[in-house]
């Protein structure tokens, strides 16, 4: 047995340690014999596909779920037979979930410091003290915000900072961040990663959950990989590559090949000329042809989503024309666009793409009710048939059609959202950030579906700020900046680093 050398510094003790953790739900194993540890001040990545057990593990650590058997949690020198949410909060364990759990109508100061005034009995709120608390913690993060402004007036990137600031008010020792960069631009992501490094230098451990593998490698010291509720291993981040992480997470490899093909002789499905909405986009012109996947990329704020909403009839252009199959169209609403054969998958799946409490079946048929109606009523037979068809065609993994769509993994929810629009038999499908919050394995499956739909003749607009997505999966790529199309690229004649240099310049 090895012994420490005289005078040698003792080995550092983990801040957080769990061993042999198992969790089952109604006979379904969510975690099986998982061990996990985080060192003080470490940036640790927790990686795995949706459904691998990441969220379950975090909820065990925070006391939301109780593990099976006699598993114990050791945190900051204390051993807990059973962690509870109250004990986790008191110990300094914080979680920033992907939805942030903030209050849009409340001010920045109130969002950051409200836990200081929450108690068991009513008391007067000291707004001055709340503002001072918020100011100090934001200064600690090297940033400043208007403390009196309602949170709803800030971008998602600024809200992330508010969520981190709130976690620090109670002297956090470890912060779990769930998909913190999913909706951020490259510049905003860089700022957030700088904040993570600041927290690490102060001795605060950060556990980073992200499907953006390049940033995981950049920011993490180590990573723990889960697959199907089991521990795959713990690895130094500096030894990892995106392809290696993908292989560990999924148990299989994915080939990154450019799928671009020429569609120059195919008939135009959509032709846009001089389309303008002041303050959002200006003089936008392009064509999408039958069977073509047109990629549109650019930093957040470039006007991509605003353009998509205009094509879908949610906003009206100030100038310019939209033609479908050569005929000019003017949409008064999205209903007109749907009737004309345009479908739009929103970037916000949770609040706009799907109705989370409603069933899988209801979500899937909501945009095509006419197909399941008979005699003015919904035919359950037709409804079940339509759902079964698209569940089968897109390979959606479900239990029962009547289950709430919220019970599905992110990748399967996204497939339901796509199926909802394919059931309308569109001529043009607009996919706005179709893989936000979706793991790498599910992403590959979604893009296989996109390629198949294009091969069947569907015209597709693929909007994404993740350049590899449009580079490998689009036939042409348009670069949008400050509301204008500033470049067009053929993935077959440009390398990905060249495209990245052009977009991020």
Could you characterize what this model shows?
The protein has 17 helices and 22 strands. It is of the alpha/beta class and about 500 residues long. It has a six-stranded mixed β-sheet, sandwiched between helices. A hairpin with a 2-residue loop joins strand 4 and strand 5. It starts with 15 loop residues before the first strand and ends with a helix.
Notable characteristics:
ATP hydrolysis activity, 505 residues, Rossmann fold, 22 strands, alpha/beta, 6-stranded mixed sheet, 2 domains, nucleotide-binding, Lipase, cell membrane, 17 helices
Task: Give a quick rundown of the structure.
The protein is an alpha/beta fold and 505 residues long. The chain contains 17 helices and 22 strands.
CATH superfamily of the largest domain: P-loop containing nucleotide triphosphate hydrolases
Reported CATH architecture of the largest domain: 3-Layer(aba) Sandwich
At the first level of CATH, the class of the largest domain is: Alpha Beta
CATH structural fold name of the largest domain: Rossmann fold
* Number of individual domains: 2
How does the helix and strand content classify structurally?
alpha/beta
Number of helices: 17
What is the secondary structure topology, with strand pairs?
Layout: E1 16-25, E2 28-38, E3 43-47, H1 54-61, E4 73-75, E5 78-80, H2 85-91, E6 93-96, H3 108-113, H4 127-140, H5 156-169, E7 174-178, H6 186-201, E8 205-209, H7 213-219, E9 222-227, E10 230-236, H8 242-250, E11 268-277, E12 281-289, E13 293-297, H9 304-311, E14 319-324, E15 327-328, H10 334-340, E16 342-345, H11 349-353, H12 360-365, E17 373-374, E18 377-378, H13 380-393, H14 410-422, E19 428-432, H15 440-455, E20 459-463, H16 467-473, E21 476-481, E22 484-489, H17 496-504
Parallel strand pairs: 3-8, 3-9, 6-7, 7-8, 13-20, 13-21, 16-19, 19-20
Antiparallel strand pairs: 1-2, 1-4, 4-5, 9-10, 11-12, 11-14, 14-15, 17-18, 21-22
Protein name: Lipase
Pfam family, one: ABC_tran
GO molecular function, one term: ATP hydrolysis activity
